[in-house]
Automatic annotation (TrEMBL):
Amino acids binding biotin: S21, T22, N23, Q45, R49, G50, R51, K117
Protein name as catalogued: Bifunctional ligase/repressor BirA
UniProt gene name: birA
GO terms assigned for molecular function: biotin--[biotin carboxyl-carrier protein] ligase activity
Family statement drawn from the similarity comment of this UniProt entry: Belongs to the biotin--protein ligase family.
Organism encoding this protein: Thalassobacterium maritimum
EC number of this enzyme: 6.3.4.15
Full-protein residues shown: 83 to 338 of 338
UniProt function note: Acts both as a biotin--[acetyl-CoA-carboxylase] ligase and a repressor.
The reaction(s) this protein catalyses: biotin + L-lysyl-[protein] + ATP = N(6)-biotinyl-L-lysyl-[protein] + AMP + diphosphate + H(+)
Length: 256
């Protein structure tokens, strides 16, 4: 059992060497009335979940699987930007550990470096009629793993902080930085204690800006140059004819 501390408030971290999914464990802890916020950390997941029903490969050694559970009891609209803010604060916090590699966010939920993904984020929430009952924010972060050992289907598209930064990192330090970044995102976004603009905070961290990307919207493929996000968090695409399209959900891919 470990603790991190932000502005004097302690957060308990429960570590499991192996677990099915840290998001599922956080859910169980909430249903057993563990006092929130708390974090669940693990080195290996047997049933890691990704976005859109995908599996999250979680068997490679030296990575971090982490979830933080919150019980905010406030209107659900506050949730809209949470993952975007978490990505911003996590990227900023980790950047100090890899000074020679630019860490970026690929809209909406991935952390990238040099065009390869080193982390994915998954926010799961439960609501009552008009308030958020719980938020479980999970991140799978490739820390000290060696990408040449990844399963072949991931080798070209995935990387780790070790691979991009050139040195091994302390897992405890990485975990503490990420948990504090998630608490900061919660404070600024969910509890509304921040004054920074989402659009401005996002701009320097976007991995897609200026790149040609495709997205599927209403079953149609659209292509355009990505240019930041708007204040609702939607990705702005400028099509070849100059028209502006906004992507609100789903994934985008870089046009080859
Ligand atoms: C994605 O890119 O699709 C999001 C992946 C999120 C994976 C993390 S690992 C820790 C937490 N527990 C899970 O089962 N999933 C998230």
């Amino acid at each position: 059992r470990y603790y991190t501390q932000l502005n004097g408030s302690k957060l308990e971290v429960l570590y499991f060497p192996v677990i099915d999914s840290t998001n599922s464990e956080a859910e169980r802890q909430l249903s057993h009335r563990r006092k929130s916020p708390f974090a669940i950390a693990s080195s290996c997941q047997t049933k890691g979940r990704g976005r859109l029903g995908r599996e999250w490969h979680s068997a490679t050694a030296d990575n971090l699987y982490l979830s933080v559970g919150f019980e905010p009891n406030i209107p659900p609209q506050a949730l809209q930007h949470f993952t975007l803010w978490a990505g911003i604060h996590i990227c900023r916090a980790l950047q100090s550990l890899t000074p020679n590699a630019a860490l970026k966010i690929k809209w909406p939920n991935d952390l990238h470096c040099d065009g390869r993904k080193f982390a994915g984020m998954l926010t799961e929430a439960k609501m009552d009629a008009d308030s958020l009952r719980s938020i479980i924010f999970g991140i799978g972060l490739n820390v000290n793993s060696n990408p040449t050992k990844y399963p072949s289907e991931l080798r070209k598209s995935a990387t780790s902080l070790y691979a991009v930064g050139g040195k091994e990192l302390s897992m405890n330090q990485v975990a503490a930085k990420v948990i504090i970044a998630i608490q900061t995102a919660y404070d600024t976004c969910i509890l509304d204690n921040g004054s920074e603009s989402l659009v401005e905070a996002w701009a320097p961290l976007s991995s897609l800006s200026g790149k040609t990307v495709t997205a599927i919207m209403n079953n149609q493929e659209i292509t355009g140059t990505a240019s930041g996000i708007d204040e609702t968090g939607a990705l702005i695409l400028i099509a070849a004819d100059g028209s502006v399209q906004k992507v609100r959900a789903g994934d985008v891919t870089l046009k080859k």
